[in-house]
Structure formats: structure tokens, C-alpha cells
Amino acid sequence: MRKYAKLISPIGLLVLWESTVRLDWLDPRLVAPPSLVLAELWRLAQSGDLIAALTISLSRVVAGFLIGAAIGITVGALMARVRIVEVIFDPLIELLRPVSPLALFPLFILWFGIGEASKIFIIAFACSFPIILNTYAGVRGIDQTFFKASQSLGASPWEIMHTIVLRGSLPHIFTGLRLAWGIALIVIVAAEMIGAVRGIGYMVLDSQQTFRIPRLFGSIVVIGVLGVATDGGFRYLARQMMPWYHETRA
After folding, report:
1. What separation, in Å, do the N-terminal and C-terminal C-alpha atoms of the chain show?
2. Are 96 and 238 in contact, with CB atoms under 8 Å apart?
3. What is the pLDDT tens value at each position of the chain, 250 positions in all?
4. Is 20 exposed, middle or buried (0-12, 13-18, 19+ CB in 10 A)?
5. Cα–Cα distance, 116 to 182 (Å, whole number)
6. In whole angstroms, what is the distance from residue 130 CA to residue 69 CA?
7. Please, what sign has the CA dihedral across residues 185, 18, 208, 39?
8. C-alpha dihedral over 25, 26, 27, 33, to 10 degrees?
9. How far apart (Å, rounded) are the C-alpha atoms in residues 131 and 172?
10. CA 27 – CA 38 distance, rounded (Å)
11. Could you give the domains of the chain?
């Protein structure tokens, strides 16, 4: 019963949305009802345009996300364990973290061109900060007794990193990854509006410019559904990799 309760608010929103447009409480020229949005999405799916746009956008997001994750986990763990690394990187992170990735995107275009590289690297830049901060917090939160015990038992640095650092900080790392993935979806849509002629972000902009309102709303809905679905994937992966963590919370 609890599982189905989560559907109440989305279904209620769809009913309210459809009703307000059909009753002319909202201008149908500016707000497309869900029935027309779904019909347009079905047409886009049949033509292959929707799949093509999603494939292009997701390839950019995944590439940038993986680069950002690799950098974020490495830097965050090193900052937590090596004092000199923290001293060097902490001011840079605090300086760059508040800067909007979109403000830097024109600079990335100058450096890497209008092609794929600029979009991938701006996503990696945006994704790295929540992963760094959460990894740092996770590693720093590990009880120092575990490190002392492992060293006294003759554990190698790799064994310490794998059995203590990684396992102990994994819940925080997953939190950072989930936050970073959401940021990646936001950034790719905006980046494709600025410097792309393909992708779901470009579809949103093109729909607005050509006044195809059902397609515009449909593109927005797809982005939201994609976010929910992929976050569910992260939750499932976390349960598989951290069964002990969820057992303690149950």
C-alpha cells in the first residue's frame, strides 16, 4: 500500500494539469495538456527523434559524470588522508565551487571547441564538487581506531584503502554521486541550449523557438522522468553494494 501511495501526487498533478487546461483556466496556447504531451512523445518515439536526442545527451552526461566521479573520489579521499593535499586543494575548491558552470561554459568552448569535449568537461567540472565534499566527509568520519588496528595487523596501504576507506565512506560517496548526477542532467540541458544542435536540451530550445508547446512540455517531462529513473538506479546499486548500511537503518 505504501508503494502505491507514492503515485498519488503524480496522478493528482496530471489530473489537475489536464483539467485546468481543458477548462480554459490556463491558456492552451501556452500550456499543453498531458494528453497532447503524451501523444507528442509517442510520435517522437516512433520517429526515433526522442531516442536519438536522449542517446546523444546521455552519452555526454555519462562521460562527464565518470570523469567527475574519478576526480572527485580521488581528490576527496586524498584531502581527507593527506594534510598537504587538503591545504593545497581546499582553497581552490572553495573558490571555484560557487562559480556557475554555465558562466564558465563559454570559456570551455574557447578551450575545447563547440564539439563534445566542451560539454563533457563542463559536466565533469560541475559533478566533481559534490563528490569531493561527500567523499571527504565520509573518509574523515571513519573512526581512527580502524586505521590504527589495521596498521598494527600489518595491512598494506591498498588493503586499508579498500577495506576501511572505501567501505567506510561508501554511503557518503553514493550521496555525492546522486547529487552529482542530478547536477549533470541540469548542466547538459543548459549546455545543449547554448552550444549544440542535437540532444534533449536542444530539443527544449528548438520547441520553444518554433512554438511547439506539446513538444516543449514533453521534453521537460522526459528530463524529469529520466532523473527519477536514474536516481532509482543509484538507489538499487547502493542497496547491492552496501547491504550492511541499509540493514542498520531498517
Report:
1. 18
2. no
3. 566 667 788 888 888 888 888 888 888 888 888 999 999 999 999 999 999 999 999 999 999 999 999 999 999 989 988 899 999 999 999 999 999 888 899 899 989 888 889 999 999 999 999 999 999 999 888 877 777 777 676 777 776 776 777 777 888 999 999 999 999 999 999 999 888 888 999 999 999 999 999 999 999 999 999 999 999 999 898 888 887 776 544 4
4. middle
5. 20
6. 9
7. positive
8. -120
9. 9
10. 18
11. 51-249 (1.10.3720.10)
Q: Which three cell numbers stand for residue 101?
A: 558552470
Percentages helix, strand, coil for the chain (3-state, rounded to 5) are 85, 0, 15
Q: What cell numbers appear for 34 in the block?
A: 498531458
Taken in order 183, 185, 189, 195, is the CA torsion positive or negative?
positive
Q: By C-alpha distance, which of 122, 113, 127, 119 is closest to 57?
A: 119
Instruction: Please tell me the distance from the alpha carbon of residue 92 to that of residue 98, in angstroms, as a whole number.
Output: 11
Q: Which of 108, 126, 127 is nearest to 118 (CA)?
A: 108
